[in-house]
Amino acid sequence: MKNNPYQNAVKQLETVAKYINLQGRTLEELKCPKRVIKADLRVKMDDGKIKTFKAFRLQHNDAVGPYKGGIRFHPNVSEDEVKALSMWMTWKCSVVGIPYGGAKGGVICDPKNMSEAELERLSRAYIQAIAKYIGPFKDVPAPDVNTTPQIMAWMVDEYEKIAGKHEPGVITGKPVEVGGSLGRTEATGLGGFYVLEQLRKVRNLPQNITIAVQGVGNVGYWFIEFAKKAGYRVVAWSNSKGGEYKGKKITNEQLLELPVDILVPAALENQITKDNAGKIKAKYIIEMANGPVTPEADEILHRRGIISIPDVLANAGGVTVSYFEWCQNNMGYYWGKDEVFSKLKVIMDKAFGEVWKIYANAKRKTKNEKLTPRMAAYILAVGRVVKAMKMRGGQR
Hints:
It holds the Pfam family ELFV_dehydrog_N. By secondary structure, this protein is an alpha/beta fold.
């Protein structure tokens, strides 16, 4: 597989291991998920035929708290992709300091060619397959690519039927009507906007800097909305069919190479590779997708002086508000949207500050020109997880 995401995730871990003297069994344990769940989901289609869908749930590490991670429905879902995403979720939760470990789920399917009834049956079949491995204090799934609050509602309903009791905290990203949090829809995009604001402050950037956003799904849409409202100039955007720049049609590949101040990849992984990293003209990248920059591209961008704010920090707003939702579910007390947004800002600003301090200090004190913002985030995140693992003890 070209640009295998799991190999990328392991390479990133091996790189940060050198900075924090991580080795031996602890390093090897972190390279692999603790549990791999696979299932063949037999689903009755609208035409009466039974179709089988391959499904996965990967649980990476739970030293800090319950596993946490989304479920994606996509034709390109693979075990290696889900393994990588589960590892990145561990780091993401750790970067922002919320008490979760990482997990991820996926089903190989094309939801664009499925009816609502078929999607509901698929969603319920998925929960039936993984029900014994999840729970409010065990593993808490959430939405991801092509999964919606409605799908989460079906999933929590199916879990509660199996459990025989109400357990709204088992899944986050639900509709507000069944225990979802206000502000969850906007959360990932808003968290990225807060990162943009902090980046502008530490780099003394003007308010009217230009931005190009690749991928206007939920995340990209809300990032653009908040950025525009604050006075930033979003000059280019794209979706899966292509994009637009100054009124002209462009491809997703062309968008990545536009002469803008900030590039925001908010689609899928492996968008910036060794093949196009040398053509990137933006001075800054805010990674709103998971794994949009390969390790090889990371090195090229860094050599060229392009600062890339990593996904594990930039798009952590979604899992942070999922954590808020989980807290609200478990205590049966719900917050207003303004309170959610203000609590999110506190966490995102703090996380950015901690990552930037490690990055800036390394450059200033040790003249370490190799340390990227991604490695700074990993030093923070992996260090916290390793400390929790060691505090728990065991043969490591």
